[in-house]
Amino acid sequence: MFSRVRHIFRGQILKQAKRCFSTPGTASAPSLTSIMVRKLDRHDSDKMLHVTWNDKSTNRYPYIYLRDNCPCPKCFHAESKQRSFDVVADVDLNVTARDVQVLKNGEHISVVWPDGHISVYNSEWLHERRLPERNDILVKAQLPSTLLNHNDT
Asked: How far is CA 106 from the centre of its chain?
């Protein structure tokens, strides 16, 4: 019976995915060189989803950020390019994912929220909106070597 429930649940995710593929929050079919999701790790203690890419880099996404940016037609009005709900009023700010899955060999991910809502995100869309990691910030903050080696004598 459990496998039947899982089969039905997967079918719902795929139906939701098909609807979301046509919304502005998802990119067109990825090219052969595009970045793909390799692995998802839920970190409910810090309310983050850790995404490992096919280039072996990892980025973290706050759950509330993902829920706020759900691209489905129920949450995002395609014609006006606006959200159809108020995340502060309608979503618990401490939201965590009930389930996460990699879809279509890494082209998309799905997140099932505690209220049963399903969000599907395109990998390229996610990668373009990744938050800088600590090492990225430190590298950008470093001064060019020409300034560091400059002598005023």
From this structure: 12
